[in-house]
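Bit of a strange request maybe. I'm writing a small parser for structure token strings and I need a real example to test against, not something I typed by hand. Could someone generate the tokens for this chain?
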Amino acid sequence: MVENFTKSGWEKFDLSLKTKISTLVKGYNLYEQFLTDYTHACKRYCADCCTCNLTMTTLEAYYLVENLILKNKSGLLTKLNNSPHRRFQPELTFNRIASLCAQGKDVPEEQSDPSWGKCPFLEKLECVYYHFRPFGCRCMVSKRCCSETGFAEMDPVVMTVNDVFMQFIEHLDTGGYSGNFTDVLHLMSDEKNRNRYEKNSLQGQYGSLVSNIPIPVLMVPPEHRKKIEYILSSLNSFLIDKN
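Reply from user aminoacidic:
Good idea to test on real output. This should exercise your parser:
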């Protein structure tokens, strides 16, 4: 029901792509600061969560691809050809899920299995584009090593904050798309598509990708609202500050 969620109050601002990128990076940095208050087992060479089932937005893909090109590492995109054929390809975005939940409707289950394959960008258990990785990678933090438990063990507040950031990034990329990261990178690795995206004219149907929508409600349970109030306030200030 709607009362179990939180109205964001976040309007959809007409931001330039440059501002969207800077806002995305501010969000990444805010999340890193948030994690300093939580103990997690993630460390170098820990890649159990690095599967082919990661999702991302076109904004994150654009940021990643442009940085690889600037650093003369665009050849890394050829690794996309090694992507497993079977991978998680979501039918709903986070904000579309939030909309269904707010209406009291059932959210269809979507199948995802880590055994389908590893991320094609791993080399010797290290990510080759680590500094530009999307939020879906950044938020996979576990209190215990995943190889011991077989799954990521997260604090409930961390899970809520993860949902908020996923919703925020989609909101920021309204007009763009979300999907499996290899599918989104395939789209954005094409210069013509990046040019269309820069002009806000990336329209139509692109394979399995799903169009992003603004935040309808935030998936924040009542017991977590005060604990993450500063997160919500900071993200809102990012949208208001267009510099």
